[in-house]
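Please decode residue identities from the backbone states below.
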């Protein structure tokens, strides 16, 4: 269950309490759920009872006690504890996290991808259900000839293809040498103004998507392809690109280093686990891993939103969040000292492998290498 799913579940509980007359309040449009703070209980927490207390004319603790029994047992919720002035702390069933890890390990780096082409229909290039024809029309993506636009177009195309959308890319500047695209690993299907090789726009529900991020002032090639791509993609399209050597430093202040280091650490613990005779096996980890599970569960939604909004920076920020949740977890994976290997260690190895797969898959979509050693 993702935080979005849980938010909807809590909102349904609020609406049922209102329908039954236990709460006299207008249900909110959405409910915010977050991971508990340091030392907090459970996998998620929400302040919805405090939010509703004043309009309901009841103490927040009373509102929380009304909602608590309506949540327990719903959609994978194992238990709910009321803490502080009325916070609802929610613990999910272990089976939920086990199923998530199973799914990631089954899909590998393609976790979050849509395997069946969905065509190019709809305002965002998506459609629900099977394709209307066996050969859906491609969604045209156009860009100017500067390096940032080309790289952004390339990654947007990768994200859309990962969601089952057929895409055709075009650089509108015919003077751009194909060698520039080759140098940056960019796939361009055509150059110059759209011609006869472009599908009939009358058959498409939306016109070509023109990707024009703010050009960078300078040549990012001195950073190398991996760090250069990150420098071009990490800022939002309207923000300026910062071309400095900071993208190359191997320390925590560098987001790209944290992402690649987290992947390398995940691979390292798997190798070390193998030397101890431990094989990954999804199960209860026995540690506080809610933050990592939450961001892994959110990965498919992030990929879809990044594709829909044509915003690769959503994926870069998400990968940083995965790395920041994974790094403290990875130090808990293997037995320490005289500790004997157990089912919990195998479960932690499985979760570490899942985190590594998500990081590798995300970096691949950005066109960036995910090294096993760093």
């Amino acid at each position: 269950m993702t935080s979005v799913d849980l938010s909807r579940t809590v909102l349904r509980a609020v609406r049922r309490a209102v329908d039954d007359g236990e709460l006299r309040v207008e249900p909110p449009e959405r409910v915010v759920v977050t991971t508990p703070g340091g030392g907090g209980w459970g996998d998620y927490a929400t302040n919805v009872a405090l939010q509703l207390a004043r309009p309901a004319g009841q103490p927040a603790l009373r509102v929380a006690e009304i909602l608590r029994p309506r949540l327990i047992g719903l959609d994978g919720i194992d238990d709910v504890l009321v803490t502080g002035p009325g916070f609802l702390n929610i613990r999910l069933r272990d089976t939920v996290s086990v199923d998530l890890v199973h799914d990631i390990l089954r899909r590998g780096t393609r976790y979050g991808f849509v395997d069946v082409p969905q065509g190019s229909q709809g305002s965002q290039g998506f459609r629900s259900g099977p394709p209307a024809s066996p050969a859906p029309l491609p969604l045209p993506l156009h860009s100017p000839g500067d390096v940032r636009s080309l790289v952004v177009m390339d990654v947007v195309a990768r994200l859309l293809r990962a969601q089952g959308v057929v895409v055709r890319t075009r650089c509108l500047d015919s003077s751009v040498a194909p060698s520039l695209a080759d140098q940056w690993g960019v796939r361009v299907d055509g150059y110059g103004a759209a011609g006869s090789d472009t599908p009939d726009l009358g058959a498409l529900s939306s016109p070509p998507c023109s990707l024009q991020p703010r050009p960078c002032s300078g040549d990012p090639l001195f950073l190398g392809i991996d760090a250069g791509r990150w420098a071009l993609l990490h800022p939002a399209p309207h923000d300026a690109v910062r071309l400095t050597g900071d993208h190359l430093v191997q320390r925590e202040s560098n987001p790209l280093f944290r992402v690649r280091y987290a992947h390398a650490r995940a691979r390292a613990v798997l190798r070390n686990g193998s030397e101890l005779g431990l094989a990954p096996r999804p199960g209860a980890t026995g540690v506080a891993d809610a933050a990592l599970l939450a961001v892994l569960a959110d990965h498919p939604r992030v990929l879809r939103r990044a594709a829909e909004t044509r915003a690769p920076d959503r994926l870069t920020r998400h990968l940083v969040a995965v790395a920041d949740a994974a790094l403290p977890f990875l130090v808990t994976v293997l037995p320490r000292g005289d500790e004997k290997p157990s089912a919990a260690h195998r479960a932690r190895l499985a979760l570490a492998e899942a985190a590594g797969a998500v990081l590798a898959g995300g970096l691949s979509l950005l066109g960036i290498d995910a090294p096993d050693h760093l």
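Observation: The beta strands are 33-34, 44-46, 77-83, 87-92, 139-143, 167-171, 190-191, 209-210.
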